[in-house]
Specification:
By secondary structure, the protein is α+β, with helices and mostly antiparallel strands. Helix content is 55%, strand content 17%.
Amino acid sequence: MENRIVVSNLLHRPIRTAVSVLAVAIEVGMVMLVVGLTSGLVNETAKRVKGVGADLLVQPPNSSFVMAFGSAPMPIKIGDHLSQIAHVLAVSPVLVQVNMMGGINNVYGVDMSSFDRVTGGFVYHSGGSLQAPNDILVDDVYARANKSKVGEKLMIFDHEFNVAGIVEHGKGARLFIPLTTLQDLMGAHNMASVFFVKCIDPGYTDDVEDAIQQMLPKYKVLSIAQYMSLFTSNNLPGLTAFITALISIAVAIGFLVIFLSMYTTITERTREIGVLKSLGASKAYIIEGILRESTILCLIGIVAGYGGTLVATRVIHTTFPTLSVELTLQWAFYAGILALAGSLLGAFYPALRAASLDPVDALAYE
């Protein structure tokens, strides 16, 4: 009987019900998409660095593990010394810069011969390797997002490049240009941001790491496994605070909408509550009814939020192919719990107010 009354109340006010459900759905969607986008960005970047195929990387002292945040203070001649260390198969110097055209993407300045030795070479979807100083390679994800084709012109860093080839994604960056060209454009002559080191066998990684650390005691030397472990939101500047702020805003939206919805509902149903109390309804019965109504609203909103998030994710992938969104069951559960907790808290005060109404005053309410 009580559930029938709750459902009837929800259907009697369809607009308010729809707004409350939408608020909860937005809350759930915001939480899942914010975490999904940040996790996708972090994990995608880490996977592409791993996809280079190196066993170790060498960075300047006090540099950020996020290569795009660093500069290029390392002399390129360091690579010659690294290549002479026992068990080292190949060393590739790379200059890293960020390009804002067509999305935020890393650009690698590479020496093709050494980069191919470390990575095993690109897989070409069309076109071929870098031959001229103004050639550029783009990966298939970037090409699909920007409708790039072999032979067309591409403006990067206010410089016109010719698309020489489209390659399989996953080898560090989405854009690749000759190392010397990027050095000239950035004013970083004979400098590199990172050295990728490939051992003759992965089993020698620790030995080579120790040898490099002895040679360059102040430099940052990381195995790829160590580097991957750094890619968490806690290690990225300000990312945890950003996620927390947006999640807090989402929860606040759900809390306030449910609070206002339940509060106005209590005001409109004052006489009804007076009738129930005059018939012997206890305070616990009144509170339970209000909280049950809020819970049903929230559960419908959570389901709608899950569906909306899946639709939004598909739209993002279609509109912005270079963006990666990683949705997880863990954060779907957390988003649902946060929405439910916020809704119950938002309904609690209106429920207490309803339970404390005097039956005589409630029946006389106009």
